[in-house]
Amino acid sequence: MQFGKIRDLREDHDLKQYEVAKFLGVKRTTYAMWELGDVNFPIEKVVKLARFFHTNVEYMLELTPDKREVIYDKDITQKFIGEQLKRYRLRLRKTQKEFADVLNIRQSSYSYYEDGKTRIPTNKLVILAKTYHIPLNLVCGGKRKENITVKM
């Protein structure tokens, strides 16, 4: 899986790989591999970059051309993502086995994702998003900036 938008955003902001890596708390070589798609980019880090670049996860993962900012105000943990996946799966009236089959994994492996025991790889999140039209911005706890009301 390629993460070309992430590289484009970094370059648009005149940042070096080591600067973004430092912001994310990883080695430059790790970040470089994420940009190239050689290693799975953890969704928590994608959300952190979306906040930093004032855009959204779906744009960064090339699921939409819409780069408008989404506000991510939730603590993105593997447990939170698992709960969100379960919520969308149940809304779609699908079984864990059906989701697992789409991902080409065992149902027991998929259940670990929903239980928050294992982090779901970002590339598998993208597969689910594309297959079932699951909004990853919402799975990551995001809200459109224009939908947020200011309380006085």
Give the class-level CATH name of the largest domain: Mainly Alpha
Number of helices: 10
Question: What is the structural class?
Answer: mainly alpha
Q: What's the story with the biggest beta sheet? A: 2 strands, antiparallel
Portion in strands? under 5%
Helix content: 55-70%
How far apart are the termini? 44 Å
- How would you name the oligomeric state of the polypeptide chains in this document? single chain
Averaging pLDDT over every residue, what do you get? 91
Strand numbers in spatial order across the main sheet: 1-2
**Tally of distinct domains:** 2
Instruction: Please write the string of helix (H) and strand (E) elements.
Output: HHHHHEHHHHHE
Shape: globular
Give an account of the 3D structure.
The chain is mainly α and 152 residues long. It folds into two domains: 4-69, Orthogonal Bundle (434 Repressor (Amino-terminal Domain)), CATH 1.10.260.40; 78-145, 434 Repressor (Amino-terminal Domain) (Orthogonal Bundle). The protein has ten helices and two strands. Strands 1-2 form a two-stranded antiparallel ribbon. Helix 6 packs across helix 8 and helix 7 crosses helix 8. The termini are far apart.
